[in-house]
Amino acid sequence: GILYTIKELLLHPVQMLREYLAGKRVNYFKPFGFVFILSAVYVFLVHWLDVRIEYEMIPTYGKGEVADINTTMMGWIYKYYALSLILALPFYALANFLVFRKSGYNYLEHFIILLYIMGMGIFFQIIACVAYYFFPYYWVLYIILGLSSIYYIGVLILLFKKSSWIKTLIKVIWSAVLFLLIVFIICIVII
User: Fold this and answer.
1) pLDDT digits (tens, 9 = 90+) for 30-55
2) Do the Cβ atoms of 130 and 49 come closer than 8 Å?
3) Global pTM?
4) Would you say the C-alpha torsion 119, 172, 150, 181 has a positive or negative sign?
5) Which of 23, 97, 162, 184 has the fewest C-beta atoms lying within 10 Å of its C-beta?
6) Residue 43 host element (H or E)
7) Contact by Cβ (8 Å): 39, 81
8) Distance between CA 122 and CA 139 in Å, rounded?
């Protein structure tokens, strides 16, 4: 079930991901369902507790029309949280696949890996949302979301490490930069 999947992704993420990709899937929650259910819980908590982490951490830049666009965009992301994550994922999986092409995983396997890691990121956001509700200090958000970032980077390093962990860390960072570059190019083409 979902709690078992969360436990395994917290305690043995690399083993769990490798087992899932090797076909041992019975015990684990399916990746899309994992992300959608955790997203639904997160959106419910955000509205119920009236805590919007991104609004708290990221100031609205600009004035007038720019501020309105930022507010509208953040509103859309909250309204369609799971969808916005799923829309970004193919591009992130592409960047990951290109950077770690010698890992032996195909594009869809990178997609699944990132779905599970994204789901755990949402899990950390749920914890941050509840923690911030009870302890409304910025440092609470920064600590929990910092742990989420360390988890994300650590799992990818452990999963893709062939030689040096520093070299793998650089590749993980390059994958994130390449993702942002791909999204930037797509935005420029669309606009």
Assistant:
1) 999 999 899 889 888 888 887 766 55
2) yes
3) 0.83
4) negative
5) 23
6) helix 31-49
7) yes
8) 18
